[in-house]
Amino acid sequence: MSDTLDIADPAAAERLAEELGAGRLAVVPTDTVYAIVADAFAPQATRRLLRARGAGRNRPLPVLVERPRQISGLAQGVSEAVDRLVAAYWPGPLTIALRAADGLGWDLGNTAGSVALRQPDDDWLRGVIAEVGPLAATGACRRGKPPATTIDAAREQLGEAVALYLDGGVRDEPRSTIVDATRGERVEVLRTGAIHADDLARVAAGELDWGVRADAEPGEVEPGQAGPGEVEPGQAGPGEVGPGEVGPGEGEPDAHAGGGGDEADPAPGEPVGREHSRNEED
Q1: How many Å separate Cα 159 from the centre of its chain?
Q2: Which residues lie below 8 Å from residue 196, measured CB to CB, with a gap of 6+?
Q3: Which of 78, 83, 143, 145 is nearest to 115 (CA)?
Q4: Which domain holds residue 45?
Q5: CA gap 182, 179 in Å, rounded
Q6: Which helix or strand (DSSP H or E) is residue 103 part of?
Q7: Is residue 120 part of a domain?
Q8: The pTM is what?
Q9: What is the pLDDT of residues 197-240, one digit of tens each?
Protein backbone atom coordinates (compact mmCIF):
# COMPACT_ATOMS: atom_id res chain seq x y z
CA MET A 1 0.00 0.00 0.00
CA SER A 2 1.24 3.48 -0.87
CA ASP A 3 2.45 5.79 1.88
CA THR A 4 2.40 9.59 2.12
CA LEU A 5 5.02 11.65 3.95
CA ASP A 6 5.52 15.37 4.32
CA ILE A 7 8.85 16.61 2.97
CA ALA A 8 9.34 18.36 6.34
CA ASP A 9 9.58 14.92 7.94
CA PRO A 10 13.30 14.25 8.62
CA ALA A 11 12.80 10.67 7.42
CA ALA A 12 11.22 11.64 4.10
CA ALA A 13 14.36 11.98 1.97
CA GLU A 14 15.88 8.75 3.31
CA ARG A 15 12.65 6.83 2.73
CA LEU A 16 12.44 8.23 -0.82
CA ALA A 17 16.01 7.13 -1.55
CA GLU A 18 15.14 3.63 -0.29
CA GLU A 19 12.05 3.35 -2.49
CA LEU A 20 13.82 4.61 -5.60
CA GLY A 21 16.82 2.40 -4.90
CA ALA A 22 14.49 -0.59 -4.81
CA GLY A 23 13.15 0.27 -8.27
CA ARG A 24 9.82 1.68 -7.09
CA LEU A 25 8.08 4.92 -8.10
CA ALA A 26 7.46 8.06 -6.08
CA VAL A 27 5.63 11.35 -6.50
CA VAL A 28 7.57 14.43 -5.41
CA PRO A 29 7.04 18.19 -5.42
CA THR A 30 9.15 20.15 -7.89
CA ASP A 31 9.57 23.85 -8.57
CA THR A 32 6.69 23.68 -11.09
CA VAL A 33 4.15 20.93 -10.29
CA TYR A 34 4.23 17.43 -8.82
CA ALA A 35 6.26 14.83 -10.71
CA ILE A 36 6.33 11.05 -10.74
CA VAL A 37 9.95 9.89 -10.58
CA ALA A 38 12.14 6.81 -10.86
CA ASP A 39 15.86 6.10 -10.80
CA ALA A 40 16.87 7.02 -14.37
CA PHE A 41 19.32 4.10 -14.48
CA ALA A 42 16.83 1.45 -13.38
CA PRO A 43 15.17 0.29 -16.64
CA GLN A 44 12.49 -1.78 -14.89
CA ALA A 45 11.51 1.28 -12.86
CA THR A 46 11.37 3.64 -15.84
CA ARG A 47 9.27 1.14 -17.79
CA ARG A 48 6.96 0.98 -14.79
CA LEU A 49 6.78 4.78 -14.83
CA LEU A 50 5.83 4.81 -18.52
CA ARG A 51 3.07 2.29 -17.83
CA ALA A 52 1.80 4.19 -14.79
CA ARG A 53 1.28 7.32 -16.85
CA GLY A 54 -0.34 5.44 -19.72
CA ALA A 55 1.42 7.67 -22.24
CA GLY A 56 3.38 5.07 -24.21
CA ARG A 57 7.02 4.99 -25.22
CA ASN A 58 6.76 7.78 -27.80
CA ARG A 59 6.63 10.35 -25.00
CA PRO A 60 10.14 9.79 -23.59
CA LEU A 61 10.96 10.64 -20.02
CA PRO A 62 12.98 13.76 -19.15
CA VAL A 63 15.76 13.49 -16.58
CA LEU A 64 16.29 15.75 -13.56
CA VAL A 65 19.89 16.45 -12.54
CA GLU A 66 21.33 17.89 -9.36
CA ARG A 67 23.90 20.20 -10.99
CA PRO A 68 25.11 21.29 -14.45
CA ARG A 69 28.30 19.26 -14.13
CA GLN A 70 26.26 16.09 -14.59
CA ILE A 71 25.52 16.99 -18.21
CA SER A 72 28.74 15.57 -19.63
CA GLY A 73 28.09 12.08 -18.30
CA LEU A 74 24.62 12.04 -19.85
CA ALA A 75 24.92 13.99 -23.11
CA GLN A 76 27.32 14.82 -25.91
CA GLY A 77 27.73 17.70 -28.36
CA VAL A 78 27.01 20.45 -25.85
CA SER A 79 27.68 23.90 -27.30
CA GLU A 80 28.55 27.27 -25.86
CA ALA A 81 24.96 28.33 -26.57
CA VAL A 82 23.70 25.54 -24.31
CA ASP A 83 26.28 26.46 -21.68
CA ARG A 84 24.93 30.03 -21.79
CA LEU A 85 21.34 28.84 -21.35
CA VAL A 86 22.34 26.61 -18.45
CA ALA A 87 24.27 29.44 -16.77
CA ALA A 88 21.31 31.80 -17.09
CA TYR A 89 18.30 29.57 -16.45
CA TRP A 90 19.42 26.60 -14.34
CA PRO A 91 18.21 25.77 -11.82
CA GLY A 92 14.79 26.55 -13.22
CA PRO A 93 12.04 25.76 -15.74
CA LEU A 94 14.18 25.07 -18.81
CA THR A 95 14.39 21.55 -20.25
CA ILE A 96 17.16 21.01 -22.81
CA ALA A 97 17.06 18.10 -25.28
CA LEU A 98 20.58 16.97 -26.17
CA ARG A 99 22.19 14.01 -27.88
CA ALA A 100 22.52 11.27 -25.29
CA ALA A 101 25.97 10.02 -24.37
CA ASP A 102 26.89 6.61 -25.74
CA GLY A 103 26.50 3.46 -23.68
CA LEU A 104 24.02 4.65 -21.04
CA GLY A 105 22.20 1.74 -19.43
CA TRP A 106 18.76 3.28 -19.23
CA ASP A 107 15.37 3.05 -20.91
CA LEU A 108 13.53 6.38 -21.10
CA GLY A 109 11.23 5.41 -23.97
CA ASN A 110 11.72 6.05 -27.69
CA THR A 111 14.31 8.82 -27.40
CA ALA A 112 15.87 8.50 -30.88
CA GLY A 113 19.27 8.91 -29.22
CA SER A 114 18.43 12.08 -27.28
CA VAL A 115 17.86 12.98 -23.65
CA ALA A 116 15.97 15.94 -22.15
CA LEU A 117 17.68 17.36 -19.03
CA ARG A 118 16.56 19.85 -16.39
CA GLN A 119 17.92 21.10 -13.06
CA PRO A 120 14.95 21.85 -10.78
CA ASP A 121 14.97 24.99 -8.64
CA ASP A 122 14.13 23.14 -5.44
CA ASP A 123 16.79 22.56 -2.77
CA TRP A 124 15.01 19.57 -1.22
CA LEU A 125 14.61 17.77 -4.53
CA ARG A 126 18.18 18.51 -5.62
CA GLY A 127 19.35 17.04 -2.33
CA VAL A 128 17.49 13.82 -3.14
CA ILE A 129 19.06 13.72 -6.62
CA ALA A 130 22.49 14.21 -5.05
CA GLU A 131 21.82 11.11 -2.95
CA VAL A 132 20.08 8.90 -5.52
CA GLY A 133 21.43 10.11 -8.87
CA PRO A 134 19.58 11.48 -11.92
CA LEU A 135 15.83 10.94 -11.85
CA ALA A 136 13.54 10.10 -14.73
CA ALA A 137 10.61 12.42 -14.11
CA THR A 138 7.41 13.63 -15.66
CA GLY A 139 4.19 15.30 -14.56
CA ALA A 140 2.30 13.28 -11.93
CA CYS A 141 -0.74 12.62 -14.07
CA ARG A 142 -2.29 10.12 -16.43
CA ARG A 143 -2.16 10.75 -20.16
CA GLY A 144 -4.41 13.61 -21.23
CA LYS A 145 -4.96 14.85 -17.65
CA PRO A 146 -3.49 18.07 -16.20
CA PRO A 147 -0.35 17.66 -14.05
CA ALA A 148 -1.11 17.46 -10.35
CA THR A 149 -0.56 20.60 -8.27
CA THR A 150 -1.32 18.88 -4.94
CA ILE A 151 -0.40 15.50 -3.52
CA ASP A 152 -4.10 14.54 -3.30
CA ALA A 153 -4.56 15.21 -7.03
CA ALA A 154 -1.53 13.05 -7.80
CA ARG A 155 -2.77 10.19 -5.64
CA GLU A 156 -6.22 10.37 -7.23
CA GLN A 157 -4.71 9.84 -10.68
CA LEU A 158 -1.89 7.40 -9.93
CA GLY A 159 -3.12 5.47 -6.89
CA GLU A 160 -1.22 2.30 -5.96
CA ALA A 161 1.07 2.49 -9.02
CA VAL A 162 3.25 4.72 -6.84
CA ALA A 163 4.94 3.44 -3.68
CA LEU A 164 5.52 6.78 -1.95
CA TYR A 165 3.91 10.22 -2.14
CA LEU A 166 5.85 13.21 -0.80
CA ASP A 167 3.70 16.18 0.18
CA GLY A 168 5.21 19.63 -0.33
CA GLY A 169 2.03 21.70 -0.37
CA VAL A 170 0.58 23.35 -3.45
CA ARG A 171 2.94 23.42 -6.45
CA ASP A 172 1.41 25.38 -9.31
CA GLU A 173 4.01 27.18 -11.41
CA PRO A 174 4.21 27.40 -15.22
CA ARG A 175 5.62 24.29 -16.90
CA SER A 176 9.14 24.32 -18.25
CA THR A 177 10.08 25.54 -21.69
CA ILE A 178 11.60 22.74 -23.80
CA VAL A 179 14.35 23.41 -26.34
CA ASP A 180 15.97 21.09 -28.87
CA ALA A 181 19.76 21.48 -28.82
CA THR A 182 20.62 18.30 -30.73
CA ARG A 183 21.29 19.70 -34.21
CA GLY A 184 24.50 21.55 -34.90
CA GLU A 185 24.40 25.32 -34.50
CA ARG A 186 20.70 25.55 -33.63
CA VAL A 187 18.66 25.79 -30.44
CA GLU A 188 14.96 25.48 -31.27
CA VAL A 189 12.02 25.97 -28.93
CA LEU A 190 9.80 22.88 -28.96
CA ARG A 191 7.36 23.99 -26.26
CA THR A 192 6.90 27.43 -24.78
CA GLY A 193 6.53 27.47 -21.01
CA ALA A 194 7.81 29.67 -18.21
CA ILE A 195 10.60 31.18 -20.34
CA HIS A 196 9.82 33.08 -23.53
CA ALA A 197 11.41 31.93 -26.79
CA ASP A 198 12.76 35.40 -27.63
CA ASP A 199 14.53 35.61 -24.26
CA LEU A 200 16.15 32.24 -24.82
CA ALA A 201 17.30 33.26 -28.28
CA ARG A 202 19.06 36.36 -26.93
CA VAL A 203 20.86 34.38 -24.22
CA ALA A 204 21.87 31.55 -26.59
CA ALA A 205 23.22 34.06 -29.13
CA GLY A 206 25.52 35.61 -26.51
CA GLU A 207 23.81 39.02 -26.56
CA LEU A 208 23.93 39.19 -22.74
CA ASP A 209 26.67 38.73 -20.18
CA TRP A 210 27.35 35.20 -18.96
CA GLY A 211 24.72 33.99 -16.48
CA VAL A 212 22.32 36.90 -17.11
CA ARG A 213 18.74 36.13 -18.09
CA ALA A 214 17.05 38.20 -20.78
CA ASP A 215 14.25 39.08 -18.35
CA ALA A 216 16.58 39.94 -15.44
CA GLU A 217 16.93 43.38 -13.91
CA PRO A 218 20.20 45.18 -14.75
CA GLY A 219 23.06 43.56 -12.86
CA GLU A 220 20.92 40.68 -11.60
CA VAL A 221 22.45 37.21 -11.61
CA GLU A 222 20.54 34.39 -9.95
CA PRO A 223 22.18 32.67 -6.97
CA GLY A 224 23.72 29.31 -7.77
CA GLN A 225 24.22 30.01 -11.47
CA ALA A 226 27.29 28.73 -13.24
CA GLY A 227 29.87 31.27 -14.28
CA PRO A 228 32.21 31.19 -17.28
CA GLY A 229 34.36 28.08 -17.13
CA GLU A 230 32.00 26.13 -14.85
CA VAL A 231 30.53 24.21 -17.76
CA GLU A 232 33.78 23.24 -19.45
CA PRO A 233 34.67 20.27 -21.64
CA GLY A 234 36.93 17.69 -20.09
CA GLN A 235 36.44 18.70 -16.45
CA ALA A 236 33.84 16.14 -15.53
CA GLY A 237 34.07 12.68 -14.12
CA PRO A 238 31.38 10.02 -14.56
CA GLY A 239 27.93 11.61 -14.40
CA GLU A 240 29.20 15.19 -14.81
CA VAL A 241 29.54 18.04 -17.65
CA GLY A 242 30.90 18.47 -21.20
CA PRO A 243 31.59 20.08 -24.59
CA GLY A 244 29.42 21.08 -27.43
CA GLU A 245 28.35 22.27 -30.81
CA VAL A 246 24.96 23.89 -30.63
CA GLY A 247 24.31 27.58 -31.16
CA PRO A 248 22.04 30.58 -31.32
CA GLY A 249 18.38 30.00 -30.67
CA GLU A 250 15.29 30.33 -32.77
CA GLY A 251 12.16 32.08 -31.58
CA GLU A 252 9.08 30.12 -32.60
CA PRO A 253 7.70 27.02 -30.88
CA ASP A 254 7.59 23.86 -32.95
CA ALA A 255 4.29 22.72 -34.41
CA HIS A 256 4.61 19.42 -32.52
CA ALA A 257 4.74 21.16 -29.15
CA GLY A 258 2.13 20.63 -26.45
CA GLY A 259 0.64 17.86 -24.36
CA GLY A 260 -2.42 15.64 -24.61
CA GLY A 261 -4.16 14.58 -27.81
CA ASP A 262 -3.65 11.33 -29.67
CA GLU A 263 -0.18 9.87 -29.46
CA ALA A 264 1.62 9.50 -32.77
CA ASP A 265 4.74 7.66 -33.78
CA PRO A 266 7.70 9.85 -34.73
CA ALA A 267 7.39 11.00 -38.32
CA PRO A 268 9.82 9.41 -40.79
CA GLY A 269 13.04 11.40 -40.70
CA GLU A 270 11.91 13.43 -37.72
CA PRO A 271 15.00 15.10 -36.20
CA VAL A 272 16.44 13.81 -32.96
CA GLY A 273 15.06 15.86 -30.05
CA ARG A 274 11.59 16.52 -31.53
CA GLU A 275 10.10 13.62 -29.60
CA HIS A 276 10.49 15.62 -26.37
CA SER A 277 7.90 18.17 -27.55
CA ARG A 278 5.30 15.45 -27.00
CA ASN A 279 5.99 14.81 -23.34
CA GLU A 280 3.95 16.29 -20.53
CA GLU A 281 6.81 16.77 -18.12
CA ASP A 282 6.90 19.41 -15.45
Answers
A1: 23
A2: 177, 214, 215
A3: 78
A4: 3-215+235-248
A5: 9
A6: none
A7: yes
A8: 0.80
A9: 999 999 999 999 999 998 865 545 444 444 444 443 333 333 33
